[in-house]
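Proteins fold reproducibly. Next comes a concrete instance:

***
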Amino acid sequence: MSEFTMSNENTVTILSDEDMKTLLNYNVCAEDREMYQNAYEEQLAAGEVELQTKFQYACCLTHSGNHNDLKLASVLFEELFKEGTEELKRDSLFYLSIVETKLKDYLKAKKYVEAFLSVEPSNVQAEQLKGYIEKHLKKDGITGMALVGTAAIFGGATAIVVGTLAVGAALGFAFRKKK
């Protein structure tokens, strides 16, 4: 990590890609997860979940390595975005960008982080997350283009082989009929 000073009192920490990976891969401890899950489930069973409880549980799930937990976190943050205050909506957008990044849905993650930055344009952490997401989009785009190119080459080669076999079969059939 490196730091630079923006003014006399503000120090901003710049995260490297490795630091960003560490931040994204942080996992919550089992005790905390159980505490937030129990609070959420008790309120859910009672018929009404407080926004703060839902937010805390969704944040906890964000720091899980489990795919289903991340999907649930995404659903909860989307609900919070619809139900919450302006501050809760803003925070939900930021966490949605983290969740979607962890799920490797970089297009969705970029959409959320850009929406967050439209509300809070000077947020350095969100800018860094956006940069991280964009790097992965480029990498995935290059990988995707390579896969499409390989498929086109393979598809073309397959068409040539199938075409050759078809011509060969037709010629064989024609020669058999002449005899």
Notes: The first strand starts at residue 2 and ends at 5. Confidence is low (pLDDT under 50) at residues 1-9. Strands lie at 2-5, 11-14.
